[in-house]
Write a structure and sequence with these properties.
Blueprint (H helix, E strand, L loop, with lengths): L1 H7 L2 H19 L10 H24 L3 H20 L11 E3 L2 E3 L8 H21 L3 H9 L5 H17 L13 H29 L2 H9 L5
Antiparallel strand pairs: 1-2
């Protein structure tokens, strides 16, 4: 029990909790333009997601051909999809369609490649799921759970941030009216993305630390799923 409490109270978890509880006061203090689409906070979202993508990518490169490399490779499409969503599939790289009191509005409907976005996303997600199933990557996650090393605190922060973001978007009727603003939505989303990076980092580290030479050798004999 003391070791679990110490794990929950590590600096990363404490920083994430502090960031989550800071979202509301910051949503009052920060200028509204920071929460505009393609604004400062959304740029932070892309940076957080880019860190998650890079972490998985370099783990895959360094750990090949072990099972943890396959796990890292399987989550790469998920980070790519999240980055694309934050960038409105590339629409934010062009001039906004129009301006509103809540800031610029970007839409991807005018992009020439927009009809191909959904099929590509479905293909990426299907490949990721099939790769995870083919290589039985769930066993690694179960092993982390059995050892009591799963990062529950960052995961709870991800869920809390998603709840806060839903409140800010007025998707939940019982939320306080003071929470329903764009700045609170974007700030909680930013914290949630960094918490998701922390979840991935801990899981990959635990899986990598638990990998033995025998497991690596067995993984090397498996066919490379591309």
């Amino acid at each position: 029990m003391p070791s679990r409490l110490a794990a929950a109270a590590n600096p990363t978890n404490l920083l994430l909790v502090l960031a989550l509880f800071s979202c509301y006061p910051l949503s009052i203090l920060l200028p509204p333009s920071w929460a505009w689409e393609n604004g400062v906070i959304e740029d932070g979202d892309v940076i957080a997601l880019g860190i998650g993508f890079a972490w998985a990518f370099f783990t895959w490169l360094r750990a090949r051909p072990s099972q943890v490399a396959l796990l890292a490779r399987a989550v790469l499409p998920i980070w790519f999809i999240l980055i694309g969503r934050e960038l409105s599939w590339g629409a934010v790289l062009f001039a906004p369609d129009h301006m509103t009191p809540e800031g610029p509005v970007f839409t991807s409907h005018h992009l020439w490649y927009r009809p191909f976005v959904t099929p590509v996303l479905c293909a990426l997600f299907a490949w990721s799921a099939w790769s995870a199933w083919r290589c039985r990557l769930d066993k690694q996650l179960y092993a982390v759970l059995e050892r009591g090393r799963f990062p529950w605190m960052p995961m709870l922060i991800v869920l809390a941030a998603a709840l806060g973001s839903s409140c800010a978007e007025s998707h939940l009727s019982y939320c306080l009216a003071t929470l329903q603003n764009q700045r609170f939505e974007e700030l909680t989303e930013l914290v949630g993305y960094f918490a998701l990076v922390a979840v991935q980092a801990r899981v990959l580290r635990e899986c990598q630390g638990a990998t033995s030479p025998a497991v690596d050798a067995a993984a090397a004999l498996q066919p490379d799923v591309r």
